[in-house]
Each structure stands twice: as C-alpha cells, then as structure tokens.
C-alpha cells in the first residue's frame, strides 16, 4: 500500500468529502468506485493546492485510481521542486 | 456516399420541402404552431431544411469519434429509421436511448422521430433503479445503450422490451447502420401536434415522470429562444454542459443548432478540465452552462485558465446563478452570463436575460411567445415587488405527463402551467426566483426531493428526526443540501457521529444528493398537524443562534 505524503494527503481530502477510510485503496477508482462528481474533483484539486501548494489537473476521460492520482501529484511536486531549484 | 439532394428525398416527404421556405417565411411572433402544416415531421423539417439551404457539406456536429456533415447526418438518420423499422419499431412505439451524447444517440433520436416513433433519452447519471423504472414506465420496445449498462441492468425488468442494441462490441449500432441501403427512407407523415419524444423529469417522490412533447414543440422553442432571443446564427458552434436527456441540453445540442444551420459539439465531458480542453479544441461560440460549471471554472482559473476568445455568448440555466458568480465571471473573463430559466414541461427557456440587457441575480424577462406572470393565491397578478406563484403560458407546453393524470391536471390549466416556483417581478419587468411552493430544490441543475434523502437518513439507527433543506446564503452561493438531525434519546451529537451519518448518506444516495452539511438540533419545528415544517427549519435555527 502506498503510504507516501501524497497518498496520505489525498486520502485526508477524500475523507473530508465524506468517503469512508475503508473505501480508499490504491486501486480505488474516482468515478466508478467513489462516484465523485465534477465539483468534488475540483474540491480535491483545490485541497491539493492548499495543502501541498501544487497545481494538479485531474482531467482525462479515463477513470483514475488513487495510485494514478498520486503519480500525478508526485510528478507535479517534482516539477515544482526542480523549477524552484532552477530559479 | 450518395448525395441527398432535393430531388432524391422521396416523394412521400416531398411535402416537407415545399413547406420549408413557406414556413420559414411565415414564422413570426405569436402562434407558430398554426403556421406549420398540419402534416408535419420535425425530423424531416429540420434535416431537409438544412439540405435545402445548401448546408449539405457543412459540419452538423463535431465529436471525438468523428465529425458529421448535414448530408451525412441526414443519411444516418434515415438509415437509423430504416434499421429500427426492420427491427419492429413502429409509429408511436418508444425507443429508449441510454447513452452519453454521441453520434449514435443523435442518429437514433432523429431516426425514431423520422419513422413516427418516440425517442426517450435516459440520463446516464441515472441510478439503476431509475433506469429500470423508465424502461418499464415508457414501455420502450427497443433500448439503445452500451454493454456496461446492459450488464448493470441485467436482468431488465420490463415485459415490453423486445431488443437491446449496443454501440460497442460485435454488431454495433454504427455497423448495423452502415449495412443499411443509402437510398432515402420516407418519413412518417405525422401531425404537428402529435407526440414526437418524451423526456423524463424527477417527481416529488423521486421517481421520474415522462413528459410528452409534440413535433411542433422544438420549432417553437427554436424560433422563440434560439433565433429571437439569442440570435443564434449559422456560423455559431454550440457547446452544452447539460446533456441531451435534459430539456436544456436537448435544445442546446440537438434542435436549436439544426434550426439555424449551426454546428454543435457532442461531448461526454463532465470534468471541468475536460470541458476546458473541449472549449480550447472546438472553439465554440456559444457556451450553454449551469451555475456549478461557472463556479468550477472560476475555482480552477489559476490552475487551468479558460481561453474565452471564441465565446460570444455564455448562457446559464437549470438553477439560479448566484450574483457573486456573475460578477466574478465578468471580472475574470470579461464576459456576461445570460441567465434564463425554463422547465422540462415547456421544453426550453421562457425567461431570459437578453444581450445588452443583463440584470444579474434575475432570470430575466419573458422570452417572446411566452406569457409569464406572478400571481397571488386567487390567480390575480401581483404588483411589482410582491412575491407570488409563477405561471407561464406558451405553445411549447407539454401534452402532459405519461400515465400521470392527477399530476398533469394539477399543473396544467389550458395553455398555462403552474410551475410551483415562487417569483417576484421588479419595476423593470425582471423576474427574480425566491423559492419553491413545494419542498423540491435544485443542485447541479437537477431536482432534489428532500423526502428521498430523509428516508435514507431515517434508516440510520441513531437518528430520530430529520429535515433536509436547501441553503444558499440567500442566493449568494450555490445551493447546498443541508440536513437538520435530532438524535434518539441518550445519543450525543459528536463530530464522529456526524462523520458516520455523512458517510452513511454518501454510500446510499446519488452523489449530488448526499447532504454537504449536517446540523444537530434538539428538536425540529412542526406544523399544526404535527408534520415537520421544513420551510421554518433554517429560520428557527437562525433565531436560536441569534438569541
């Protein structure tokens, strides 16, 4: 199980949205399993920006697992960290 | 591909062509329906009309799968009519279409009307129970859907359903269409005031009811709203967030662009980032949104900014647009949002803010062709500033609800509908929504019945009483579902219990119906007859806080 900072933060945001902790696994899908609507996706994105300072775009027609969302979060964190080092 | 010119459209539908120019010239204000020929098939009228106007090679719609010209659309529609006929679909039979907005859903919708049958679009966000109900209630003979839905619905509990067609897998709907001859298929000689299609809308019990619309209805809405109010024109490209099974989406995507020879985008996007990508890709000129779309686009504007250069019109309907969002949108994107309101029963918008005359926070003024009034309990017009019931008259009014005589008679008075909305009109003639006569309200542009949510919450073992109400900070914010809950004797209101109840609701209700906020109260206010008085719940809590 992914216990990274990104996954923990993502789970905390989803629990705040009213989703039971026991429903959240690496392979849980945002739409099929959690039935998140467009406004809840926006709330996740805003929560990540507020908590981790990153701008993640959760677009794409393909349903995403929590692990795949984490990959996007971590990639964005890496990009941001590299750009801050460059500047 | 065979060109479908004027001379090749078949003699039985030739009468349509003769009337197209005649009707187009004659349709003015007032009684549009009387200016249509008595024998009138709206699919043939709109499709042949575009071929007549020289739009054969113009794109009718863009989609991720393919783009289709008006000529290709016309041919596919006739192939769909031929295929459905060969499968036993006859005039007045129902065809259920449970699909996202897609080329297949468009071909099937118009194909059914072409042959005189009745398409019944079903929202893909419906629950399985709702979809089963619609299939049974409509007595659909054929269902067009996807394999994933077929699996979810199995076994389909309708004795009337004879066949399921799928858009994926072997023998897909498109492959079956392409096997049909390309020769013109004669349209059914339907009447202008004959049922053409049904739309399902939520009822107060939560189970959707079928709204029956006529062949003439779409022409009336296109003339009154698309042409006379919006000035929709042939070089427009429309993009609608509301999907085809909703009356608002049906007009935005299916018949209004067709009525003026414009183009539209068929998209299954619901995620705000996908909608932004669609707008950047297709460059629509008219955005038909709902309040939550504008709120979400603003919320992510510093993460993914929308390029609005292509948009000449931003429209909002389906529920009240908070004034704060209107102002934020204009400050951020330098565009006004033209808010309007309509009902499924009238098929589209009857109150609208017009270009250059926008009054944020209001639903605007009556669309041409509609008589809209705020009346008191005796049916007399209210003076400006006084709250009353909104009653609307217009030619696009439904025939009635299918198999719901009592509900039909409750809302229809001749050509007039009692909408159940409470409105106030200002001195300039603008109408402002102030609430509902019943307990229904809208979230994400969709009706919510408090009863359905309360029934679920009552199943929680620690809840004694519950009242579900909408809250929007007096229209300043988007409407949210709030549950006021009292607990059984000896149970303490804790944050852990609040979370547990929240999750309990979330797991049992369609996502947008789950309460966003839960408030524990000692007891709930009751009416003289002992019923919980929902309308005074929020007020009594505010008073308690102030004291």
From TrEMBL, chain A:
SUPFAM superfamilies: ACP-like
Record's protein name: Acyl carrier protein
UniProtKB/TrEMBL annotation, chain B:
Gene Ontology MF terms: ATP binding; benzoate-CoA ligase activity
Organism: Hyella patelloides LEGE 07179
Protein name (Swiss-Prot/TrEMBL): Benzoate-CoA ligase
Annotated GO biological process: secondary metabolite biosynthetic process
EC main group: ligase
Entry EC no(s): 6.2.1.25
Protein keywords: Ligase
Domain AMP-dependent synthetase/ligase: 55-402
AMP-binding enzyme C-terminal domain location: 452-531
Pfam families per the UniProt record, alphabetical: AMP-binding (PF00501), AMP-binding_C (PF13193)
InterPro entries per UniProt: AMP-bd_C (IPR025110), AMP-bd_C_sf (IPR045851), AMP-dep_synth/lig_dom (IPR000873), ANL_N_sf (IPR042099), Benz_CoA_lig (IPR011957)
């Amino acid at each position: 199980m992914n216990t990274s900072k990104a996954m923990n933060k993502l789970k905390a945001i989803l629990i705040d949205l009213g989703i039971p902790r026991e429903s959240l696994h690496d392979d849980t899908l945002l739409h099929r399993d959690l039935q998140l609507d467009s406004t809840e996706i926006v709330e996740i994105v805003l929560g990540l920006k507020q908590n981790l300072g990153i701008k993640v775009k959760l677009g794409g027609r393909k349903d995403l697992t929590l692990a795949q969302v984490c990959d996007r979060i971590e990639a964005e964190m890496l990009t941001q960290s590299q750009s801050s080092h460059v500047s | 591909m065979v060109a479908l010119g004027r001379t090749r459209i078949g003699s039985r539908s030739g009468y349509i062509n003769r009337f197209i120019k005649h009707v187009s010239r004659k349709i003015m204000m007032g009684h549009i329906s009387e200016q249509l020929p008595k024998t009138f098939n709206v699919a043939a009228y709109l499709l042949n009309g575009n071929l007549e106007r020289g739009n054969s090679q113009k794109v009718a719609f863009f989609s991720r799968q393919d783009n289709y010209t008006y000529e290709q659309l016309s041919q596919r529609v006739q192939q769909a009519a031929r295929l459905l006929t060969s499968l036993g679909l006859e005039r007045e039979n129902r065809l259920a279409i449970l699909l996202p907005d897609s080329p297949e859903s468009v071909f099937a919708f118009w194909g059914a009307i072409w042959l005189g049958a009745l398409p019944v679009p079903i929202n893909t966000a419906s629950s399985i129970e709702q979809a089963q109900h619609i299939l049974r209630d409509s007595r659909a003979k054929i269902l067009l859907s996807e394999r994933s839905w077929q699996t979810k619905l199995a076994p389909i509990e309708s004795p009337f359903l004879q066949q399921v067609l799928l858009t994926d897998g072997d023998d897909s709907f498109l492959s079956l269409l392409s096997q049909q001859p390309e020769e013109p298929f004669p349209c059914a000689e339907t009447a202008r005031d004959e049922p053409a299609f049904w739309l399902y809308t939520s009822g107060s019990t939560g189970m959707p009811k079928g709204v029956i619309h006529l062949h003439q209805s779409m022409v009336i809405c296109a003339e009154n709203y698309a042409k006379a109010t919006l000035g929709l024109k042939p070089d427009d490209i429309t993009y609608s967030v509301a999907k085809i099974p909703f009356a608002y989406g049906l007009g935005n995507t299916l018949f209004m662009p067709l009525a003026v020879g414009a183009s539209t985008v068929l998209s299954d996007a619901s995620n705000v980032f996908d909608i932004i990508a669609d707008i950047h890709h297709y460059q629509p000129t008219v955005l038909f949104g709902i309040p939550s779309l504008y709120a979400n686009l603003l919320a992510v504007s510093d993460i993914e900014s929308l390029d609005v250069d292509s948009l000449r019109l931003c429209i909002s309907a389906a529920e009240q647009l908070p004034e704060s969002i209107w102002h934020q949108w204009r400050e951020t994107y330098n565009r006004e949002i033209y808010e309007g309101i309509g009902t499924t029963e009238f098929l589209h918008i009857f109150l609208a803010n017009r270009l250059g005359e926008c009054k944020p926070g209001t639903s605007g003024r009556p669309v041409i062709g509609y008589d809209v009034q705020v009346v008191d309990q005796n049916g007399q017009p209210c003076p400006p500033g006084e709250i009353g019931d909104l009653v609307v008259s217009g030619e696009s009014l439904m025939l009635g609800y299918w198999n719901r005589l009592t509900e039909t008679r409750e809302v229809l008075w001749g050509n007039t509908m009692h909408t159940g909305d409470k409105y106030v009109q200002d001195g300039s003639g603008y109408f402002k929504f102030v609430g509902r006569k019943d307990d229904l309200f809208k979230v994400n542009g969709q009706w919510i019945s408090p009863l359905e949510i309360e029934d679920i919450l009552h199943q929680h073992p620690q809840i004694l009483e519950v009242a579900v109400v909408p809250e929007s900070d007096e229209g300043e914010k988007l409407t949210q579902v709030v549950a006021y809950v009292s607990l059984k004797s000896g149970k303490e209101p804790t944050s852990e219990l609040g979370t547990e109840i929240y999750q309990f609701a979330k797991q049992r209700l369609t996502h947008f119906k789950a309460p966003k906020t839960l408030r524990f109260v000692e007891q709930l206010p009751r009416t003289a007859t002992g019923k919980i008085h929902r309308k005074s719940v929020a007020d009594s809590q505010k008073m308690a806080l102030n004291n």
